[in-house]
Every structure is written in structure tokens, then in C-alpha cells.
Batch of 2 targets.
Target 1
Amino acid sequence: MKLKILVTAGDGIGPEVTNEAVAVLQEIATLGGHEFTFTEKRIGGIAITTDGAPLPQDTLDAALVSDAVLLGAVGGNEFNSLAPDKRPEAGLLAIRAALGGFANLRPAFAFKELAVNSPLRPEIIEGADILFVRELLGGAYFGKPREWNRQTGVAFNTMIYTRDEVARVARIAFKLAAARRKKVTSVDKANVLEVSQLWRAVVIEVAKEFPEVTLEHQYVDAMAMHLMNRPRDFDVVLTENLFGDILSDESGVITGSLGMLPSATIGGKVNLYEPIHGSAPDIAGKGLANPMGAILTAALILRHSAGLEREAEAIEQAARKVLEQGFRTADLVRGNTAGLTVLSTAEMGAKVRATVKEVLARA
Ligand code: NAD
């Protein structure tokens, strides 16, 4: 298997965590005889300082000819006074738009060992494993017309979807559910919004192509509550852009730590993979960053850009095993550290790699 990966490590802890993600991918390549090539380019604050723009043209050109883009994180306090379109985050928005991915996949899963970090009771979250599929290019964030008229004191946005926009993201959700626990929960507000009535009608149509997958509908307000009361009941959760933004963040509490969560944006020209955390300037360069979010993002690259499901699962299993064995980065330790071993970023990466090797050898 050949795979060309562009690594845009970015700022703060971005380079530290992407180093570990790349090292895991290299390990997988060596073990399986795969040919993964890695090209590094700048994005975000480091690109502003070096190239004068948050997304240099040569980074974008390299992204468009790669099979997958792995992004670390962008941002830094020294750029906070710049105008929004000049800031590091503008580079992230620009690369997302240029790659054109419309389906944002964001898992929310509970690690038994980290239940202590979640505000939810362990018996509620244990075993929860949800995959959010959020439509990323439509809805109120992009809909026109939009305006804030300061004279009249009136502001509005347009929540708009076409049949095709709904169908293409729904198809991705059903395909993913077919390979998981075979259930899609589609979230809308069809009791009030016409745009949600279209959403629901199209999702019902697409569901007919996947008879093995069960479809249920939930109103977004009820769903916000169900996710906290009974997260184990959900498999794939399909949402439009705004609802997905809110619900996927809410579900972060199931995992209990920002440093553990990966994401993938698929369906466009090139898939974009990134841990969900930011550049964490407060801990950058100290070896304190948790590389798990980035390493689990590497698993998503293998699953969605390489078709290497066994290897993707090996990384996910290794992450669980390492936690079971009591290894933690500093962000995962609350209070009592008895029985726990606190590791640096690089030590945690090495531990996961060694465990991936064991898992694959046993499989
Ligand atoms: P953040 O995610 O960087 O940090 C929030 C808190 O979580 C901090 O205390 C940080 O130390 C901790 N944290 C985050 N990731 C961690 C990890 N892997 N291991 C251990 N601890 C971790 O969010 P923020 O502080 O709001 O933003 C910092 C900068 O990052 C800002 O410039 C912001 O714009 C940017 N940002 C970038 C992205 C992105 O690149 N996708 C996302 C969010 C924020």
C-alpha cells in the first residue's frame, strides 16, 4: 500500500503530537511492508512568521497532490492582535475550504480508565462509542443572505441545504454505520424548521439504500439531553453543520479529555485529519502534550484513506491497553496518582508504538 501524507504540524504542541502520529504510521508501514511517504509543510503561525501568510501556496499545492493531510494545530498568543483573516486560524479555514471535505467525522468514546475525568457517572458513559458525522460546508454557517444591519438593529442568517448536500453526507453516515453497530440517529428540528423537514425526507430516502442499518430521528433539543443520559444507545449520529458543532463538543465530556480526540474531514478532494485540540501554548515545548488525539487521528488516516482497518483498530486497541496498564500523560491525571505512571509526550508515543506492534503480532 502506497500513501503520500502531507504533514502540516503547525504551532505550539502541533509538532510534538504530530511527530508521534507520524512515528506510529512509520511503524505500521515497516510492519506491513507499506510505502508511506511524508512531506512537511508550514501552516498557521509558523507560516506567518516564515512565509508571511497562514497558508502558503506551496503548502496548499502539496496538500492537493497528497493522499491525506495530517494537521497538528495552529495558533499562538503572539498572533491574537492580528485581524481574523491574517491569523493562524485563517490558514486552517482556508485549507479546509480548499480540500472541500463535507463530512466531518468526530468520534466520542469513553475510556473506562478515564471515567474519573468525566463529569458524567462511570455507569452512564462506560462502553459509549459514538461517531458524529457532521455536515461541514452547508447550513447557517455558509448560507446566504446573511447580515447584521446596525442601522435597523436586525441580523439574520440563512440555514439552507439542497437535496444533494443532505444525500451525500447521509450516504457517508449510513456506509460508516453499516461497518459499525448498524444504527444511524439523524438529528434535526423538523417540528419547526422547513430545512429540517427536507433533511429528514432525504435521510429517509437514502436509508432505503441501506436496509441493514436502522434509522431513528431525534430532535436536536431532545438529543442534547439523550447524549448525556444514555450515550451508549447511539452509534452513528448524523447532523447538519450547526447542530453537529454543538452536539459533538457536548459529547467531548464522554471522553473526559480534549487531548484524546481525533477527527477526519472526508468527501472532498483530499481528506484532512486533525486532533480536535488546539495548539495549547501553555504547555508547548515542555513534553507535556498528550499525543493520543494525534495518534488516534493516524488510525483514522489508515481507516479512511488507506483501507487498513486492521491496523487502524490495532492503534485504537493499543491506546486502550496503554491506559489499562496505568500509563498517562499529565493532562489525564486528576488527584490520586497511585498505580499510575506519568509519561512525557515522546514516552507515551513510544509506549503506544510498542503496544501496536504487540497487538498486530498477536492478531
Ligand atoms: P487548546 O485546545 O489549545 O487548549 C485548551 C486546554 O487544553 C489547555 O489548557 C491545553 O493545555 C489543554 N490541552 C489541549 N490539547 C492538549 C493535549 N494534547 N495534551 C494536553 N493538554 C492539552 O485550546 P485554546 O487554549 O482555546 O487555544 C489555544 C490556541 O489554539 C488558540 O490560538 C486557538 O485559536 C487555537 N486552536 C486551534 C485549533 C486547531 O488548530 N484545530 C483548535 C482549537 C484552538
Target 2
Amino acid sequence: MAEPANPLRGARFVLAAHEIRQLPTDAGAEVAFAGASNAGKSSALNALVGHAALARTSKTPGRTQQIVVFELPDGHRLIDLPGYGYAKVPEALREHWRVAIDAYLHERRSLRGLVLIADLRHALKPYDRQMLRFCADIELPCVVLLSKADKLSRAQALTAQRKVQGEMDKAHWNARTILFSAPAGTGVEEARAAAMDLLL
Ligand code: GDP
């Protein structure tokens, strides 16, 4: 069977911003990607757009703590938010991003939804919970990609997913989870469809 066409294909790097005001004009629609540092956010983005090095290209040293903007051929944007929880980031920079991301999520009118990437084996981290609570508060749709699913057996992965989904449902966070693995391709199509659903 032929693979369905990738609706996120053709994404290109637009800019990397240190301040919200450096972002493109707040018009149209965009989806933001967030997650703890090392959760697999870049790998997930690359798998979704079908471009092995798109997110990495923009992750040259110094750019790692920036908001990176990609644009799809149809004009929709994918926003790569700085990974959180990286021990080597100085406290002042962490505070800068805490405030900036908070402002971005609150104020960005073109933001249609959040894709949160969380390592299935360590989900959820405190800051993941904070993001989910926050999305629920502002009624921003959110999809959680439970990454590195290939590191567990299928049965273990499903058990871990049920646990995370159960916690989220209990908290009324109203987000759904997708088992994901960039190298194995698990959940990639479902995640693409979910990202497109947020954008359209
Ligand atoms: P980021 O810091 O969240 O952008 O994480 P990266 O995408 O750079 O991934 C961090 C590390 O985890 C890298 O060594 C990746 O190769 C690895 N990784 C990311 N996603 C997966 C996955 O789904 N499965 C496995 N086995 N490794 C992954």
C-alpha cells in the first residue's frame, strides 16, 4: 500500500528568536513543540516533517536555547520551543525562557495547539505537568507524543501510556497521547495527522 502523502513535507527554517517580538507576524496558524531537553523533540520534528536534519540544522551551538520557526509550503508554522530542564543552562536564561514561553503561550493568537514530547520512560516530568495544566487553563489543545517507545516492549509501552493517559484524564487536562518512536516510525503518521488537525 502506498504511504499517504506527508502534509508536513517541505518545512523550511525561517528564523531563530531570543525574544517573542522577533517572531514572524502573529497571523495565520502555528503549532508549537515543547518538551524537556533530550526528550526527543528534534528527532520527533524531523520525523514529522520527513527531513532528517531540519531541527538539528537549527540546533548548532548557541541556537539550542532559542525559539526556532519553521514554515510549511502552505504558510503554516511549526514552532520549536527551547527544551526545558537542561542543567547547563544558567538560571537567568532559564528565567528568561520561563517568562518568554509563558508570554508566548498566553499572547500568541496564531497558536492553535501544543505538541508536547515526553520520554515515555520518564513521563511525566514536573514541567510537563505544568505545561499540560497551563494548556488546560487556557483551553489550548494539546497532544503528547510519548517518545522512545522503541526502548520498551509493546506491552510495557502500552502500560506506560495508559498510566500517563490516566493521570491526564484524572486531572481533566484533556490531552491525548500517542506512542512515538522516531527511529522505528511508530506513531509518526498519527502525530502528523494530529499536528495538521491542530493547524486546520
Ligand atoms: P531534544 O533535546 O528533545 O531535541 O532530543 P533529541 O531529538 O536531540 O534526542 C535526544 C537523544 O535521544 C538523541 O540521542 C536521539 O537520537 C535520541 N532519541 C530521540 N528520539 C528517540 C526515539 O524515539 N527512540 C530512541 N531510541 N532514541 C531517540
